[in-house]
Amino acid sequence: MSTDIISSVEGFDEFTLSPAHPLYLHPSDSSDSRLIFHPFDDDESDFSYDENAVNGPGNWSNIHPDWIKCNTGKMQSPIDFPNKKVEVVSNLGILQKFYKPSNATLLNRGHDIMLRWDNGGFLKINGTQYQLKQVHWHTPSEHTIDGKRFDMEGHLVHETDDGKNIAVIGILYEIGLLPDLFLKIIEKDLKALADKKDAEKAIGIIDPNLIKLDGKKYYRNMGSLTVPPCSENVVWTIDGKLFNELTNGVLPGDQLDKMKCCQTIPGDPNTFLGGSNHPTFENHAAKAPES
């Protein structure tokens, strides 16, 4: 099966994608009607991550007509990245991010914690600028590497100025000994949001550059949003030092617990404790990497 490399990001019609959902690994050496979804201003009150619930991931497409792609789409995320089946591409270079400090607001969305920037800079992919909108976290991770699931995954969400195209950077975290410095900055504000769905708090100027990104080696694929309406044609970049040094983010157990404490809908069980991650999709294919 042939696999076509991404040649342009300006207008998703220029992408050539196999139905098998090709994956790309980029080490640096030098829908149709297109339902537009704004991940930083979404309504997530009607769905659950509990696979056994009537509103769980397997039933998302039955909840709302605009969510049909959640269970019928051909390019759904998250996925597993099997290293033996990932094509290596070496001509895209280091991840081009141009972030800057900006006023930020912390928000408890009930199933996750989101940090939203007013003007946090942008990411550039193939000449197209994607404005940084927000970062949020899932636990455990949504994407997996060789079937391994990590303790937490952060999503830096970007959008073009016209709101039509989305790019997301995923950061994988494992529990370690030292605290994650970026999360440490917002720890003091998390308590104010505990047990208060839709509560938000302006926390002043936050520099997104403090989020630890390797940016030299990363996985890339075309996928979808991992929350309803599961819109496709999302450019995914899973950042990480690959193979034996995959994970960028390291956080101690107590820091992970602090993230869990805030992600609770009043009167309901803590959704974070039950997992705030979408299960991976298995329908994908890739080529073997270069040795």
Quick one: overall form? Answer: globular
Name of the level-1 CATH class: Alpha Beta
Radius of gyration: 18 Å
Helix content: under 10%
| Biggest pleated sheet | 13 strands, mixed
Q: What is the CATH architecture term?
A: Roll
Q: Which class of secondary structure composition applies to the elements?
A: mainly beta
CATH topology: Carbonic Anhydrase II
**How many helices?**
4
The CATH superfamily is identified as Alpha carbonic anhydrase
- First CA to last CA: what distance? 20 Å
- Secondary-structure element string: EHHEEEEEEEEEEEHEEEEH
Please indicate the percent range of residues in DSSP E strands (runs of 2 or more): 25-35%
Number of strands: 16
> How many domains make up the coordinates?
1
Uncertain segments: 1-24, 26-43, 242-248, 264-275, 283-291
Quick check: average pLDDT? 74
GO molecular function: carbonate dehydratase activity; zinc ion binding
Function: Reversible hydration of carbon dioxide.
EC number: 4.2.1.1
Protein name: Carbonic anhydrase
Describe this protein's structure.
With 291 residues, this protein is mainly beta. It has one domain (16-262): Carbonic Anhydrase II (Roll). It has four helices and 16 strands. The protein has helices at 60-63, 69-72, 181-190, 253-262, and strands spanning 23-27, 80-81, 87-88, 96-99, 102-108, 113-117, 121-125, 128-138, 144-145, 148-149, 152-159, 166-175, 200-206, 217-224, 232-239, 249-251. The strands form two sheets. Strands 1, 3, 4, 5, 6, 7, 8, 11, 12, 13, 14, 15 and 16 form a 13-stranded mixed sheet that branches. A three-stranded mixed sheet has the order 2-9-10, with no helix packed on it. Strand 14 and strand 15 form a beta hairpin. The radius of gyration is 18 Å and the shape is globular. Residues 1-24, 26-43, 242-248, 264-275 and 283-291 have low confidence and may be disordered.
